[in-house]
What we know:
Distance between the termini: 47 Å
Strand order of the largest sheet: 12-13-11-14-15-8-18
Number of strands: 29
Helix content: 40-55%
Shape: elongated
Mean pLDDT: 90
Largest sheet: 7 strands, parallel
Number of helices: 36
Radius of gyration: 46 Å
Strand content: 5-15%
Amino acid sequence: MIRRRGTIDNTNSILDAWIMVEHLSEGEINLKDRDILLLDDLTDKKYKKYFQTLMESSEKKKYKNSGLVLYLDIFKFAEVVEFLREKYGVAKTQSDINYGNKFSIALYFDKNINFISDNIFFTCSGYMRYLQDVPSKSDFQEFEEKFKEKTIKRFEGSEDNQEKFDNALDALLNEYNIDIKNCIVQTLSNIETEATNLHSFFIEDLNKAKEIDNTNLKRYLTGGNIKDRINLDSKNDSPNYNQSVFEKILEPQNYPLGRFPSKTEFALSFMQQVAVNLTIGYDNSNMRSVNGPPGTGKTTLLKDIFAELVVKQAHDICLLTSKYIKGSKDTIYYGENASIGVLTDKIAENNIVVASSNNGAVQNIVNELPLKEGIDDNILPELEKADYFKDIANADMKEERFWGTFSLEGGKAENMTNILDKVECIFNYLKEEYKSDSEIYNKFKKQYEYVSDLRSDALNLQKKYVDYKNAKQNIDDNTSEKEKAERAKIETEKLEYEKAVEKNRADIDEVAGKLGSIRAQRVDLANSISNQKMLVELKRSQKGGFLDRLFNSNKNKAVEDEVNALLSRLQKLLDEDETLRKTEIELQNRSNRLKRDIDAYKHRLDEDISKYESLKQQREKQKAKYNSIIEAFESDKGVFDRVLDFEKDYDSLQMSNPWFDEKYRIEQSKLFVSALQVRKEFLYENRKNLKAAVNIWKNQKNSVEKNKNLINIAWNWINLCIPVISSTFASFSRMLKNIDENVLGHTFVDEAGQALPQAAVGAVFRSKNIMVVGDPFQIKPVLTLDEGILALLSKIYNVSEIYLSESACVQTLVDAVSKYGFYTSKDMDESSWIGIPLWVHRRCQYPMFTISNAISYNNLMVQGKEGYGKTGWYDISGKAANKYVEEQGDFLVKKIKSMIEKDPKIIDKNESDTVYIISPFKNVAYKLGIKLNEIGFTRKEKGKVTNIGTIHTFQGKEAPIVFMVLGADTNSKGAATWAVNEANMMNVAATRAKKEFYIIGDRKLYSGLGSDVIAKVNNVIREYGNEHPELVDEITD
C-alpha cells in the first residue's frame, strides 16, 4: 500500500491533529507519587488554612520559589476514550494501553498560599468529560480563556482574606460538581520548573511550527522526492543490486579523518561505514535516517560521526587568523561594554545535540561516550594526557571513570544547572590553572596532514586496484578472444584471396589464349595485307603510258578496275586487322586488370597480416604490462583484505571495511585527541566568552527582552565547551525554548522508532542538520490513545495514518525524507522504503539471531557473533485472568528456582542481571513481579521493577537469558493476536537474550492465530532442534 504523505497545503492539518493528540495527553497524574496528598479529611472547607499548614510543615518551603499545586477532579482517562468511542462509533481494540488518571483543573499557589494567576490549567480531557463534546481549537481556547478570567476574578483579594480564598475555591468546586475528596495536592520546590502539567511538552513548538517557513520542517512533514532516492541494495542476486553507488560512497576521499578512540583493532562494518561517509559529507542533504536492527552498532557509528565533527571544528579553529573572538556593540549583554563574541558559523554548525523520547537512551549515550572503559589501551594514555577537563568530569565520582567532560545530559532544569556548573568549573580552571600552549594548533595541523596523506595513500591503493581489476579482466576475458577474431579475419581474407587469384588466373589464361589467337590472325593478316599491296602495285605497273592510255583506253580501264578490286580487298584486310587490334587491346587491358586485382588482394592481405603481427606484438607488450601489474599487486598478500571486493559473498562483504587498516584507525584516533586539545586551547583563548555564555543563559529573560540572538550565541559556546549535550524530547523544547530556527548544528535522534512524530518538531526546525537512528521493527512509540481513536482523529483532520497511528514515529517520517536508504520489498513499493540499513549483528548467538532475522529483516542481517545458544517453547496453558495464566507463572517460578540452585548469582543484587522476564502484557508482568519476588528474584530501582516487564522496560538492555511469557487463553484470543500480529514484541524479546531465549505460552492457541510471526518462530525452533537437539529444551515436567 502506498502511504499518502502530507502536502504543503495540509501541513497545518497535520500539526493541528498532533496538537489535539497532545491536548488529550495533558493532565496525566500519578496517584502513586509519594509527594501527592489526598484531601479526604478536608471536609470543613478551610482550604487556605489547610494548605498553609501543609506548606509550613514541608521541607520545601525553604526554597525561594516553592509552593503547591492543587489538582481538581481526578478521573480515569478511559472515561474520555470510551466517550470518544461511543460518539464516533469506534470499536474497542486489543491494545494493551494503560490510560492512567487525569485531572480536570490545576491551580498553583506560592509558598504563602497566594493564588498564581499565570498558572491556571483546564485540560482538554476534562473539557470533553465535562461538556461531553469534542472541541475545535477555537472552542477550547475560548473556553479556557473564560475559565481563567472567571477563576482569576474569584481569587482577587484573597491574598490576606482566608474567607474569600475558601469561597473562591468552593465556588469553583460547586460549579463543576467536584468533590474535594476527588482532588489532590502536591508541594513543589520550584514552581517555575516543576509546573510540568500546564501544557504538553510539545504544544508550544507545534503552534510555532504553524507560523514559520522552515525547509527542514517542510521536508519532515511532506517527505522527500521519491525520484531522488538511491537504493543501497548490496545483495548481488537482488534485482535492485546497486554496486556503483557503494563504489562511489566508499571512495577513500569520502572517509573521515577523525575517529572515536575505541578499540583500533575493530573496524566499522560495511554499512556502518557507508552511513558515516554519507553523514560527514558525501550526502549533501540536511536530513537522513539510519535503520539499525538490534545489536548492529548504531551507537558505534554515532561515536565516529561525533569524532569527525570534533575534528572538523578543530580544523576550522586552526584556520582562524585570530583565535580570540571579540564581541561587538550588537552583542552587549550587560551594561555598556560587556559583550560576547559570536562563534563562527563554520564552527557552530558542527555542534552536537542528541535527543530521544527514551530517557534511558539519552542517558546511555552521554554516559558511555566519556567512559575510559572501551577506549583503546594504547590511545587512553594520550587521551588522559590531553585532559579534556578530566578532573571536572570525575568530581562527583567515587572512582575515576571518565576520560573527560565530553558529554552531559541536558533537558531538565536540574540537568541544565549541572551543565552550567560544569562550564563555570571549566572557566575557573582555564582562568586559574590551565597553561596555554599555542603550539597545540601546529601539532594538530601536522597530524591532520599526516592522516590526510594516509588517506591519499588509500586513494592510490584504490587506483592500483582499479588497474589490477582491469588487467585481470583484459587478460582473462578479452585478449584471447580478440586475437582469435583477428586471426579468423585474416584466414577469411586469405581464403578470399586464393579464390580470387584462382579465378583471375583462369580468366587471364583464357584472355591469353584469345590474345594468342588474335595475334596469330593478325600475323596472317599482315602477310595478306603485304601481298595485297604488292598485287596492287604490280597491277598499277601494268598501266600504259599517256599515249597508250589515249589510244588503248579499254585495256587501261580493265587494269584500273582490277586495281580498284585489289584495293577494295586490301581495305577489307585492313579493317579486319583494326578490329582484331582493338580486341587485342581490350583483352590486354583485361589481363592487366586481373593481374592488378591479384596484386591488390595480395597487398591487402599482406597489410592485414602485418597489422595483425603488429597488434599481436602490442598485445604481448600489454599482456606483459598487465602481468606486471597483477604480479606487483598480488605480491602484497594483505592487500586483498583492504580492497572493496564485490566478488565476496554477501556475509563477507557486510563484515568488511575497505581501503584502510588499523594503522589508519590509530592515527585517526590520535587526530581526535589532538582536536580536543585544540578545543581546550581555543576555549582558553575565549574563556571570557564562555563566562558570558553562562551569564546570558542564566538570565535568559533579560536577553529575550534585550536581544534574543544573545541566547543563540550563548548556546553555541556552551555546546562547544560540552561537545555532546543530550535531552529527552519532553525537555527539549523547555531547554531550548528561546533558541531560534536553524541554530543547532547537528541534532541526532536516538531510538527514533520509539518517538512520536510530533515530539521531534521543535528539534527539526531548530536544527541545520538532522540524523535519526533507530529501528521501527522494534519498540513502537508509547501511546496514550489506541489505534482506533488515532484513526478517528486521522479522519477528522484529514491526515494520513503515517502521522497518526500506532506505527507513526519520527523514524518513519525521516525515512521518507532520506535520500539514501533501502527498499525492503523487491518491487520497491514506496511503503517499504527505510533509511540507511545496518546489517551486521553482534549481540545474540544463534538461534535468537535467526528468529529476529526471519521475523523482521527478511534474512538480510549478517551474524557477527558466532556461537550457539539455547531455546525452546514451554507449552503451558490455563485459564487467563486479565491475560495472566497462573500455570505459566507457577512453571516460571519452578524454573527460576531450579536455575538459582545452580547459580545463586541470579538473585545477588550486587551482580548484573542474568535473567530477564518479558511479557506483551502489563498485568502479566505485574503478576510475575509479585510472584517472583517471593523467591527473591524481582529487582527494583526507585520503586520500579527492572528485570520483569513489557518490552519497553528492556529497550537497549541485554542479558544472558530471557523468558518471554505470552499469557492469554482462548477467551482472550484478541489480545493474543494483538501481541503477535506484528513482529516488534517478539523481535525485541529475542534480541535481549545473548545466550538463551525461551517462550512460555499456550502453543496451540498462538499457533492457531494465523500469525506469520509465530509460524516463523516455530519453524526456527524446529529446524534448530533438528540441527542441535541438545540445545532445545521444551520439557515442562
